Amino acid sequence: MKKSVLISGASIAGLTMAYWMNQYGYEVTLVETSLAPRMGGTPIDVRGDSLDTAKRMGIIEELNAARLPTMCMEFMNADNKVEAKMLVDEISIRPGEDIEIRRDDLVKIIYAKTQKGVAYKFGNQIQTVEQSDDKVTVTFQDGTDESYDLLIGADGLHSGVRRLVFGPEEQFTKFLKFYFTIMQVDESFGKKNTGQVYNVPNKMATIYFYNRGFADALLAFKSPEKIVYDFRDIEAQKKIVLGAFNNVGWKIPQLLNVIKNAKNFYFDQGCQIKMPTWTNGRVALIGDAGYAPGFPTGMGVTLAMQGAIILADALGNNEDYKIAFAKYNESFRPMVETLQATVYDGLSFLLPETQEAIDARNNRMQ
Question: What is the largest CA-CA distance in the chain?
Answer without folding.
Answer: 67
